[in-house]
Design a protein that fits this description.
globular, 5-stranded mixed beta sheet, two-stranded antiparallel ribbon, about 220 residues
């Protein structure tokens, strides 16, 4: 037996399976549609009531208020998705973190979850800003009963801390972050943390989602 044949084969690192570009694009489009379909549907319903000749003026005024509110919600969601999932400028563009924070606050609103945006107002590479917004979404998923999400950025370290009643790391999202989930189970909801993980990887960062005391901590460093 030759010496080369007797030598042990070198160990290879397991390669984590990834979605194809087409599947990722399709699922992200589904995610955006999922986010905006509710307010857009409410606008359509409100306009139908306004156009109904049998509706009284009070009902029409209520419907008009619904249209106004839903239009603001749809606009806020689309602006958020444009940065979080879309191009939002040319390749390599810088985005103002302060502006991103204002867009994020409009997206989150004030009803169930409150956003404490502590990231400094400074220009950051587009991919970093996209990552932070996606980390915000993950943190919000950890407090289904509502609470406060605090977003911070310092150097190449980013975090989104979610504090709320019964805060926890959803099992499916944990599997996505750990890379143990079957790709065939990814849907419009779970593709978002998967995308966040790819954004972190492209920036040379590691994404984690863990419990830090009673809080959920999403961190990229």
């Amino acid at each position: 037996m030759s010496a080369t044949m007797s030598e042990p084969m070198p160990e290879t690192m397991p390669v984590e399976a990834r979605l194809s570009d087409l599947d990722l694009a399709a699922l992200l489009c589904s995610r955006v549609c999922h986010d905006v379909i509710s307010p857009v549907g409410a606008i359509a319903n409100g306009l139908e009531l306004i156009d109904d000749p049998e509706m009284d003026e009070e009902t029409k005024e209520t419907a008009l208020d619904m249209v106004r509110s839903s239009a603001r919600t749809a606009s806020a969601k689309l602006k958020f998705c444009r940065i979080a999932f879309g191009a939002a400028g040319s390749a390599g563009a810088l985005i103002d973190m302060g502006e991103a924070g204002e867009i994020a606050k409009a997206f989150v609103g004030e009803e169930k979850v409150k956003l404490d945006w502590q990231a400094p107002r400074e220009n950051r590479p587009k991919q970093q800003v996209k990552l932070v917004l996606n980390m915000l979404l993950m943190a919000m998923a950890g407090i289904p009963r509502g609470g406060v999400v605090t977003v911070s950025a310092e150097g190449d370290s980013f975090s989104a801390r979610a504090a709320g009643d019964r805060a926890k790391v959803p099992e499916a999202i944990a599997q996505v972050v750990e890379g143990t989930i079957e790709l065939t189970t990814l849907d419009a909801r779970l593709v978002q943390p998967y995308y966040a993980k790819q954004l972190a990887r492209s920036a040379g960062l590691m994404l984690t989602m863990t419990m830090d005391g009673p809080d959920v901590l999403v961190k990229a460093a």
